[in-house]
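Researcher: Let's try something more involved. This one mixes different molecule types, so please make sure each is placed in the same coordinate frame as the others.
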Amino acid sequence: MSQVFVNIALSLDGYMAPEGMTLAHWDTADYKDWGAKWGAMMGWLLKQRYFRENHGFGAGGEIGAVNDMVRRTMERTGANIMGKRMFEQGEASWPEEAPFHTPVFVLTHEKREPWVRPGGTTFFFVNDGAESALAQARAAAGDRDVRISGGADVVQQYLNLGVVDALEIALAPVMFGGGRRLFENVREPLPQFKVDHVLAGPDATHVRYVRT
Amino acid sequence: MSQVFVNIALSLDGYMAPEGMTLAHWDTADYKDWGAKWGAMMGWLLKQRYFRENHGFGAGGEIGAVNDMVRRTMERTGANIMGKRMFEQGEASWPEEAPFHTPVFVLTHEKREPWVRPGGTTFFFVNDGAESALAQARAAAGDRDVRISGGADVVQQYLNLGVVDALEIALAPVMFGGGRRLFENVREPLPQFKVDHVLAGPDATHVRYVRT
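Model: All components are placed in one shared frame. Result:
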């Protein structure tokens, strides 16, 4: 059966996004230095060849274990789920060929027709909650896996539903000092994980936790 | 020159201690389940042979890379610094031969004569702040290193002073859901670290960060 997984980058001090990284300051990356902080956290990813090709950043880039992991993450994913804020930031940033190539279920109160992008990404706007989005994503993913893409509040919702089979964290050595924490609002009974795999990259430590 | 280092265990969600783990509930480890949570975070350490011998837990225990790391951490340490709360909890828990075997500088407002324990541990009570404690610890440590032992607020003070050369974290896969966070109150300019070493144990991921 297909899995539900989270695959995100995290700052050393536990933030998914630095303070100031909001749509209001999307074009002013020097606001609270959010651009440099985000870049430092994502540096390991931005230089991988597979990621660069997928995002149209041009040729070149690193190959190796991290690049292979990035490719496998993409290839195993049959559907994505994300929050409204992540979608809106992406809408302002992604190339026309949005970098998912799957159905993407956006948790939002906004009513909106599906938005079809070239390259296989279609955004569906789900108004009836996280469990409904997951059911739709599972159906769409078929044998492939469902990725909870973010942001933090959406990951927290699925952790609290107890449905996250694997939690894959790229822990970068950068400190943010503030921002959106991944781990808060997670309630009892707390999800239980064990370490499944560690890939020690030079710029991030990639740990895969699986549900026990 | 000797280094200043932090070596602590951390829950997956970023806590050094679970909610409820206070002196008031020291004898009721089922209060908010703090004992089980703490034990789950420290499980990797509690079964190492060197740790068991040092704490008088009896013979046996694991040997290998993690045990070697625990021994090296102890052997390199020429002085410890800790906060008042950690000291008080330890005072209620440590065996008569306290498990430090070095001078220990306790940050506190309490005026108290040095407390000499068998086995080489002497607690000195420092009333004039973190920088003074560090100067005293450096002098006492000689060629060996100074360990910032905890708790979270003390680690934060030294991070903010910019004097932490190495940050060694045993990241355990347990979730606490609440408690004392390691990373908060850390201010700009934020300390800058890079990954120096990763030891992937079965029960915790040991990452060593060094100052850049």
